Amino acid sequence: MTTVLWILIFIVTFCIMEFMAWFTHKYVMHGFLWKLHKDHHHKDHSSWWERNDFFFIFYALVSIGCFVGWSYYGFWAGLPIGLGIFAYGVAYFFVHDIFIHQRFKMFRNANNWYARGIRRAHKIHHKHLGKDKGECFGMLFPPLKYFKK
Fold first, then answer.
1. CA distance 22 to 121
2. Quick one: pLDDT at residue 86?
3. What is the pLDDT of residues 95-127, one digit of tens each?
4. Are 37 and 27 a contacting pair, CB within 8 Å?
5. CB atoms < 10 A from the CB of 132, how many?
6. Cα(72)–Cα(66) distance, rounded to whole angstroms?
7. How far is Cα 43 from Cα 109, in angstroms, rounded to an integer?
């Protein structure tokens, strides 16, 4: 039963992270921490590192905190929660940073329905370079309207 519960917590955490990505993007990145996110929409430097990458570090620290809680303090749900956050971060990195923004030159020729929908949704978001008017949604599961044929 414990294994089933851990798997369920892992899946629920992964799904909650899609909501957190939307919420953080809409109300934090395009809100009071726009200064950190702005260089993602309009690159104003020559570095590979973006100030926007601090959001990745924040969620990595949350995941690590869950592992520490599990390992040292007996917080049994810390392991599946930490793994769920970590798994979402890996998926987000592959979809957003590698596939969409090509920070590493991989998956350039992917052209299936999901790839086209993700690219279309992200292009709509990046159409606006400013803080306002950028449509915000989760990264892995944007609205179905972007998956038209």
1. 13
2. 97
3. 877 887 777 777 777 777 777 777 877 777 777
4. no
5. 7
6. 10
7. 24
Identity of the residue numbered 39: D
Q: How far is the C-alpha of 41 from the C-alpha of 134, rounded, in Å?
A: 10
- CA angle at 100 for the pair 95 and 101, rounded to the nearest 5°: 115
Residue 118 structure tokens: 């993700």
Which two tokens mark 59?
């969620």
When pLDDT is averaged across residues 76-82 and rounded to a whole number, the result is 97
Residues 8, 27: Cα–Cα separation, whole Å: 28
Which tokens hold the place of 110? 């992917």
- Tokens representing 145 are 């309207």
In the chain, what is the straight-line distance between the N-terminal and C-terminal CA atoms, in Å? 43
Cα separation, 28 vs 19, in Å, equals 13
